[in-house]
Amino acid sequence: MHESRIKMLMQKSAHDNPSIPKATKRELKFYSSQGLIADTIQMYAYNAQLFPNDFQVHYQLGLILYNSGRFRESLTHYREALKHYTESKKNPLFMIYTLISATLKGLKRFEEALEYVNKSEQVMVPHENIADIYYMRAVISHKLKQYEEEVTAYDQAIALEPTEPVFYVNKSETLMTLGRFKDAFDTLDISVGLEVEDYLTHFLRGYAAFKMGNYIIAKEEYENVELFEPKRSKRHFNMKKEFLDGMEQLEPPNKKQKL
Prior knowledge:
3 domains; Serine Threonine Protein Phosphatase 5, Tetratricopeptide repeat; elongated; mainly alpha; 71% helix
């Protein structure tokens, strides 16, 4: 998109409109829906210049920049949005704090990120996204190697969203880090019921059973473990190798062992 076209759209009706021009909103929605991220960012950036005190401009620009991996710029606009925040049911204050926390996590500033999680908890209100606070606490606690706190945070998230498989899978991995394989297995049993086709869940379930010495269930999951391909996790690669090598050396017992 030509820069002159963007400027024209941004300036349209700006002199008599206290917030984002309606024509601009339509253009932004269109370009965003078409996946034209660079154009969308450019348009919001011009909007930020025209409406420097507009919460929504900075908030939306922060979201797009975050999803584009541009965390430093995203943080700048989230903080600007915070300066001009007014109470809103659609965007409650805890959500802004949680987004800032996620951005700081992306910048590997974990201690600061945890501070904003604490702020989120202090101002949280009933909302469909409230579990995000505890999920963010869990993720950051993991980065800080605060594993017991991480497990507690996942329990809080699960209490609010009991059908979210990610919470169970992540919690189970941390329980295994703590050597609590029985608890991990029980957690994964719930996850399997929520997302049967997920190879990671079955891989972890099989590994937990293997570490517990329950080779009947481990054998049941053997094929799933073989099919699971760790893409980025060295830990998963090592777990898979340990499982497959170990199972090749074992004959399963005649009777199914109790968990």
